[in-house]
Amino acid sequence: NHLTTPIAMATTEYITRTLPELSEHKAVYEKQLKAAVLKTAQLKETLTGVYEKLEHTSHHLNTVQGIRESVVIRNQALVEEALELEKRNREHQRDVERVDKEMLEVREVQRAEEADYGERLNETREKITRAKNNYSPAALAGREKELSERKEKLQSEVRDLENELAGSDDMCEIVG
């Protein structure tokens, strides 16, 4: 029987004496282990919630990033469109200025033509007035009278010259 040896007895005595203390430690450790398992389960639950929130936030951030990128692209398109509109507006403004200049030139030509037309119209009116005055019944009657008097005068002069010629023929016969 080897268990009765002093080492075995001391060991048995030591185990017997420390066993209640070890049992107490075991109970404390079990409580601490249960508390740690419970705390781990709570932490796992919290971490799962945090992970879900992070996942949701990540999804939201991706959505926001996509929106931001589309806004940036749209803004670039709007800037390009604004630049194109500004370019077309400048071209249109140049066209308007060119047309305005051409209209001024046309107006100047029209004014010159109207002035020339006015002068020619006045000249024509003066000619018409002179013709009316020259060929009015009173003027024609006056001219007719004047021409009749002149005709009579010329006829009288012709008769006088004929008489002189006839008289000089008689003188030629006498001298001859």
Write structural notes for this entry.
By secondary structure, the protein is mainly alpha-helical. The chain has two helices and no strands. It has helices at 6-134, 137-175. It is rod-shaped, with a radius of gyration of 70 Å. The relative contact order is 0.02. The model has no long low-confidence stretch (mean pLDDT 87).
Structural class: mainly alpha
Strand content: under 5%
Apparent shape: rod-shaped
How far is the N terminus from the C terminus?
Answer: 227 Å
- Give me the strand/helix succession: HH
Radius of gyration: 70 Å
Task: State the helicity in percent bands.
Answer: over 70%
Largest sheet: none
Counted by DSSP, the helix tally is: 2
Please count the beta strands (DSSP E, at least 2 residues each): 0
Average pLDDT rating: 87
Low-confidence stretches are: none
